[in-house]
Design a protein that fits this description.
The chain is an alpha/beta fold. It has helices spanning 19-30, 57-67, 97-120, 146-165, 190-194, 204-215, and strands spanning 9-14, 34-39, 49-51, 73-80, 125-133, 171-178, 226-229. Strands 3-2-1-4-5-6-7 form a 7-stranded parallel β-sheet, sandwiched between helices.
Length: 240
Amino acid sequence: MSDSVSSQDLAIIGGGAGLIGSAVFKRFTEANFKAVSLDSQHTNSDENKVQIDLTDPTQVEHFFEKIFKSPQFSSLTLVNTQGLSDPHTGPLKDLSFQQWKRYFQTNMDSYFLTCRELLRYQDNFKKASIINLSSTRHFMAEKDTEAYCATKGAITSFTQALAMSQTDSKIRVNSISPGWIAPPDSDLRQIDHEQHPVGRVGNPRDIAEMCFYLASDSSSFLTGQDIVIDGGMTRKMIYQ
């Protein structure tokens, strides 16, 4: 999109009912995009919020087929924020194969499905920006988080590869790796904020603003990048 927005600018937000996804949806709606939130947690479907299982290929295919019955769009932004948010699964020796697969199905397969469908409709938009939510946990970890961290590593690598596959197209692809993000009204300790070099824990709007930037022509020289938004925590030496 250009930095001025028209009714022909479409933003599709996967996981739009979640903490970050809802903030992203709000940001694009405020900017007068045609914004559509996709989430299994939506109780009812309408023009702007669609109840959908993003791990189901048939449902994802049906949605994209329906949305692109509209006139050609000037720009398309796809933001994937969906996924299992709890990184802790217990010791790997006790982790079931079914639970392992569930993390990959929800956190990674759904990104593949939405990105694949977008590529199939390239004739329906003039340019596009794909933004995939990863995590700082793709390069740092706590104990007992193997499944979650593995999916975030997969998202980052998938994003980089997809960006290189689109070097001759009108599609840019980037990922965002948030650090600690909490609702503004969270009951956090002072030390939670003070340990961050910027002096506070992140909030969903921090991520939404970066998504909006990556959708704009202001970021037209950015593709294949992973952008860390963590208040400086991953640059901080910590000794105990």
